[in-house]
Amino acid sequence: MELKEIQDLIRFVAKSGVSEVELESKGFKIVIKTGNAQEIIRVAEPTVIHAQVPVASAPAPAPVAPAVPAAPIAAAPVADDSSKYVTIKSPMIGTFYRSSGPGKPLFVNVGDEITAGKAVCIIEAMKLFNEIESEISGTIVKVLVNDATPVEYDQPLFLVEPK
Question: Is the model's pTM score more than 0.85?
Fold first, then answer.
């Protein structure tokens, strides 16, 4: 089939309003689709069937004893008074590191005294290593993130008991 014949076929399909034509001949196959296809959407209303089911009263089943003795109910956990702690949060998205490099000492450990302005960790963002400094003075109570893990913006990193 020549290029002129294909162009004529495309014009004919466009004028006829047909959305798709498929033509197959020796050694070739041509499919012409136009954007004039109208989409037919059928919405079927859900059919609601109201049937009355007779209610039969069955005898209540006998209680079955558990095969395994029930575990004793634990006492309610003592509420942790974390309201007195201040949280150091991540100022950015990145990867959290507790030290400046492999084999280097950690910036802070649980129980360490920190002062405002002291570096507590590094967050790597886009190949830049940003030292995160404490804004408060106090004692590190808990490290909330594992080393070399991703952190989100405003994610808690440390709990500090302020002085």
Answer: no
